[in-house]
Amino acid sequence: MANLITHGQKLLQIGSDSAKLDTEILLSFVLDKDRSFLLTWPEKKLNDTQLHDFFQLLIRRIQGEPIAYIVGVKEFWSLPLWVSKATLIPRPDTETLVESVLEHYSGRKNINCLDLGTGTGAIALALASENPTWKIDAVDFSMDAVELAQRNAKKCQLAHVNIFQSDWFSQIENNKQYDLIVSNPPYIDGNDKNLTEGDVRFEPASALIATDNGLADIKHIANIARNFLTAHGQLFFEHGFEQGDDVRSILENLGFLAPQTKQDLNGHDRITWATFS
Q1: Which residues are annotated as a binding site?
Q2: Binding positions for substrate (predicted)?
């Protein structure tokens, strides 16, 4: 196996900045073993079927397909989540949103929370894993995404997350009130050159692209959220690294108080939140 790892790393090193890790993940997937198995049994040989499957997966990765889509799972907040091409791949930057919420709501129980555009369910399930008393609704326009998020909730044994189909607020009861609303909505402009690079080439455009320079869905959510937030309820967004100023202005113009922005792991503006009076 050691030779296969070296060979795979060489093949992937041009198109991947994690060539060795990618190779080990694919090899572990074919063997149905943890990566630790590769270290423990470096001399193990693959049978013909396993060898064929490994090289088929390697070809897909060489062509740029994300590892998460190839193996069908991605870890987020230490939760192993199923992923599919119906949803975005959960990213470490989004953990900054979870961290921000937890910092503001530390020790608070029985919070009513809404996650808009839940995708795999990553944000809602991460918050639920830390807060067993919270009542969390999570919605997505895509029924495929809803079914995937429901599977993830069951997989992670987080039954107190209520996941259902809704086009933003359309299927939420008019009298429902939330202490907290979170969202990682589409925020990329349709002309952004980054849409032709990296993993996003394989991800659903409907979960990535928004009109109005990427701000249309953020504006819509912020406007309607005022009808569903409790007094002093908070709204948290993940957004593009150049959108911090715009998102704060949107929130201020809608009557939200003291919007603030937090940087992601790379030092870029990524999370903005504010309180509704």
Answers
A1: 117-121, 140, 168, 184-187
A2: 184-187
DSSP string across 54-110: HHHHHHHHHTT--HHHHHTEEEETTEEEE--TTSPPP-HHHHHHHHHHHHHTTT--S
The model's pLDDT over 212-260, given as tens digits with 9 standing for 90+, comes to 999 999 999 999 999 999 999 999 999 999 999 999 999 999 999 999 9
The full set of domain ranges for the chain reads 2-64, 86-276
Per the annotation, binding residues for S-adenosyl-L-methionine are 117-121, 140, 168, 184
Residues making up the annotated binding site for substrate are: 184-187
One-letter amino acid for residue 145 of the chain: A
Q: 2-64: which CATH number, 3.40.50.1970, 3.40.50.300, 2.70.98.10, 1.10.8.10?
A: 1.10.8.10
Classify domain 86-276 by CATH number. Answer: 3.40.50.150
